[in-house]
Amino acid sequence: MLVPDDVRAALAHEIDRLRGIAAGVAWVAEANLHVTLKFLGQVEEARLGAVADALTAVAARCTTFELGVRGLGAFPSATRPRVVWAGLEPPTPLAALAGDIDAALVALGFPGETRPFAAHVTLGRLREPRRLAALAGALARPADFGRLRVARVSLMRSQLHPHGARYSELCGLALPAP
C-alpha cells in the first residue's frame, strides 16, 4: 500500500533524525516507504492476472478507512532491533484487510502467513540484531506522522539493485467508499 506524500516526508524526516543516532542501519529511501499487507516473493508473470483478480475481489468487499501513523518500535524488540518501524493505528481494519488478502492468495497456492499481522511502515533494517541503547531510547519517544487514508491496495513489484530496491505498481485497486 502506498503512503501519501505528506506522511512519507514526515517519516523521511524521522529517518534522518534516527540516522544520526544509529549507525549500521540500512534506512529505507523516502520513495520506498510503504505498507506491506502480504509479501509474495518471486511471482511468475503467468500468475499475476490471477493475483490481481483475487485482490480485486478482496478490495470490492472492503471500504475505505483511515489510520494514524504513530509511534516507533522495532522487531523483535527495541533493545535488539532487526527492523525499525512506525506504527499504524488502529491496526484492526488493516489486519482484517491483510487477513482477507492472505486467505485469497492461499486459495491460489501461496503460503499462508504464520505470524499475526503487525501494522507498520518499515523505516530501516539491521543485518544482525544488536544492542543500540541510543536507538532504543529514541524509539520510546511519542511520534505522530499524520493520517493515512486507505482507499486502495496495490500489487507491487520489487526489483533489487545495488543501491536498494525499486518498487513499481503493477495494479492499483480502489476500495469502495463506506
In CATH, what is the class? Alpha Beta
What amount of the residues lies in strands?
A: 25-35%
CATH topological fold name = Cyclic Phosphodiesterase, Chain: A
- List segments where confidence is low: pLDDT < 50 over at least 5 consecutive residues: none
User: How does the helix and strand content classify structurally?
Assistant: alpha+beta
Strand line-up across the major sheet: 1-4-3-2-5
Domain module count? 1
What would you give as the CATH superfamily? Cyclic phosphodiesterase
Total DSSP E strands: 7
Largest sheet: 5 strands, antiparallel
Give the SSE map:
Layout: H1 5-19, E1 26-27, H2 48-61, E2 65-76, E3 81-89, H3 92-106, E4 120-125, H4 133-139, E5 144-150, E6 152-161, E7 164-174
Antiparallel strand pairs: 1-4, 2-3, 2-5, 3-4, 6-7
Architecture overview:
The protein is of the alpha+beta class and 178 residues long. The chain has one domain (5-174): Alpha-Beta Complex (Cyclic Phosphodiesterase, Chain: A). Helix content is 29%, strand content 32%. It has four helices and seven strands. The strands form two sheets. Strands 1-4-3-2-5 form a five-stranded antiparallel β-sheet, with helices on both faces. Strands 6-7 form a two-stranded antiparallel sheet. A hairpin with a 2-residue loop joins strand 6 and strand 7. It is globular, with a radius of gyration of 17 Å. The two termini are 19 Å apart.
Short description:
The chain has helices at 5-19, 48-61, 92-106, 133-139; strands at residues 26-27, 65-76, 81-89, 120-125, 144-150, 152-161, 164-174.
